[in-house]
Backbone:
């Protein structure tokens, strides 16, 4: 949690409506502002911003939060990074105490990568061999500039000398992974390679990838910078900083296998294309992408390796609850060769004919439909989204010509076995549509809404509630966090600290309540009394059922009498 006043000061200086207007065209809607959600594709605006409460909430994808949450979700960054960005915009000085040293180290690395990128680009302009290779690959000068493509020469110490002259220490160069140190002295890690700067979602260069230019059997074709405080290969998505706006506009992301596939896709107008670093897609990559969309089309090579990569990626994407399709290219083709040889329209038709996961797996097992059916069911068991499971099950029934009820029974059996296995995916978690199902306890929800709308009543409400008896798990967790804040929370402090320490589901629920609950203080106290009375009645009704089940006649009679007293109190207005 954030305990200092810096975030609060930033809130006071930056209005959330003005800030979000940098990303969304907002129009007045009563006391709030409305626009098309920047986190998912929609035609009817469901994204609301409250200037009074300084929060946002989307009624379509259920994302919500404050100005910090918005920037974190939109740019895919951490809270400290969002804090630094907003502090700079607000003119608020951040103390360099705790964590200051690490920030200065990161700043030095970022500066070194920027200078190295310029060095590689200048080296490209002076190398006919490198330029010739890129021309053969059909890359235009504008594309090379957009992606910052460069070249590392054959000299063992060219970059080392450049960085040394720029006053970087050997330790900094080693940390950056640009220079290695052996028995014969320092040497450039990247030599005779086409260089691809790897950027974070904000466009800051955090690493490099290099493709060997001269064929050599003893050297890997592609290498990446070593991992660092800035760069995690399993979490970094190539081209995301250039693609994120198009991903939001298109409503889905185009996932290719590598640098050149992504670059050529952009050159031909497919600006929503990205790639994992290497063919191995990871849950970390998908989590980054899910901040921008929950839909993806995989475009992998048409050879056996590409098909296998698509199959693995499908498992991961389904486990993350993403809606996916697979564009299967002809064998021997990849997006790079297909776009250059057949053109944009042929590639667009291929995307338009992308297969659903069910179609893909059934085609993969076309010689044995039963194996295909089992593969689909196994995939569905891992999916946490109930709607995706149901839709895919209906599609499978249609393709496999098997009654849906039979498939559903088979899947239930697989899910039961999966739950019993310690290695099984968490199928139940998130399988319903959270608060959108209408299953929450209405009294508990109303009490939480009042505690959020009127912080001065918060301690009184918390004092009357038995936290562990709260039925709804999400509400119980939020109430526990509110209780941990103590008694000194006024509206901005409460909101800021609660949102900062919440899960996405909790954050969505809190912002929905804050956005929709009418701030009618006149009736708030009566609502609190009614809610507590309703909770008490619900609790005693449960106790009566338990006593009846245990056949304790005396306890049943006592509880019924107690319930009658509660009901009489309700009727008399007490």
Residues:
């Amino acid at each position: 949690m954030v305990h200092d006043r810096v975030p609060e000061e930033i809130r006071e200086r930056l209005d959330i409506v003005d800030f979000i207007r940098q990303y969304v065209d907002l129009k007045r809607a009563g006391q709030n502002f409305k626009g098309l959600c920047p986190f998912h594709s929609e035609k009817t605006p469901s994204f609301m911003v409250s200037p009074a409460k300084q929060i946002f909430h989307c009624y379509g994808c259920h994302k919500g939060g404050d100005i910090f949450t918005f920037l974190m979700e939109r740019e895919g960054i951490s809270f400290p990074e969002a804090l630094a960005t907003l502090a700079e915009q607000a003119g608020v000085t951040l103390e360099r105490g705790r964590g200051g040293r690490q920030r200065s180290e990161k700043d030095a690395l970022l500066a070194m990568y920027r200078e190295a990128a310029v060095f590689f680009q200048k080296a490209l302009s002076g190398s006919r061999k490198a330029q010739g290779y890129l021309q053969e690959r059909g890359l235009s000068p504008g594309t090379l500039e957009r992606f910052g493509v460069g070249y590392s020469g054959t000299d063992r110490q060219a970059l080392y000398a450049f960085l040394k002259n720029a006053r970087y220490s050997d330790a900094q160069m080693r940390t950056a992974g640009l220079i290695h140190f052996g028995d014969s002295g320092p040497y450039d890690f990247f030599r005779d390679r086409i260089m691809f700067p790897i950027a974070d979602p904000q466009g800051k260069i955090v690493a490099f990838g290099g493709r060997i230019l001269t064929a050599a059997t003893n050297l890997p074709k592609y290498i990446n910078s070593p991992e660092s405080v800035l760069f995690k290969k399993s979490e970094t998505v190539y081209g995301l900083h250039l693609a994120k706006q198009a991903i939001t506009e298109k409503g889905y992301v185009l996932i290719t296998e590598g640098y050149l596939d992504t670059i050529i896709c952009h050159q031909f107008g497919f600006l929503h294309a990205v790639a994992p670093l290497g063919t191995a897609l990871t849950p970390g990559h998908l989590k980054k992408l899910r901040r921008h969309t929950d839909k993806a089309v995989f475009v992998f090579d048409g050879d056996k390796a590409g098909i296998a990569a698509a199959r693995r990626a499908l498992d991961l994407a389904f486990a993350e609850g993403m809606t996916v399709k697979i564009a299967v290219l002809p064998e021997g083709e990849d997006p790079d060769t297909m776009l250059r040889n057949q053109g944009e329209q042929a590639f667009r038709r291929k995307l338009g004919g992308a297969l659903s996961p069910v179609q893909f797996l059934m085609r993969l097992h076309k010689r044995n439909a039963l194996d295909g059916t089992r593969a689909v069911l196994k995939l569905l068991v891992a999916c946490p989204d109930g709607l995706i499971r149901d839709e895919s099950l209906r599609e499978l029934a249609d393709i496999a010509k098997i009654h849906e009820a039979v498939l559903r029974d088979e899947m239930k059996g697989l899910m039961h076995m999966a739950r019993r296995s310690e290695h099984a995916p968490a199928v139940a978690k998130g399988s319903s549509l959270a608060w959108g199902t209408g299953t929450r306890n209405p009294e508990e929800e109303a009490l939480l809404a009042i505690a959020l709308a009127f912080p001065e009543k918060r301690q009184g409400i918390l004092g009357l509630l038995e936290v562990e008896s709260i039925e709804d798990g999400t509400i119980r967790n939020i109430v526990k966090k509110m209780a941990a804040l103590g008694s000194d929370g006024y509206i901005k402090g409460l909101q800021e600290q609660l949102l900062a320490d919440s899960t996405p589901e909790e954050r969505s629920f809190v912002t929905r309540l804050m956005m929709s609950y009418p701030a009618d203080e006149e009736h708030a106290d009566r609502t609190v009394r009614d809610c507590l009375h309703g909770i008490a009645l619900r609790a005693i009704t449960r106790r009566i059922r338990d006593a009846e089940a245990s056949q304790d006649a005396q306890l049943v009679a006592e509880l019924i009498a107690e319930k009658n007293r509660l009901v009489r109190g309700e009727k008399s207005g007490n």
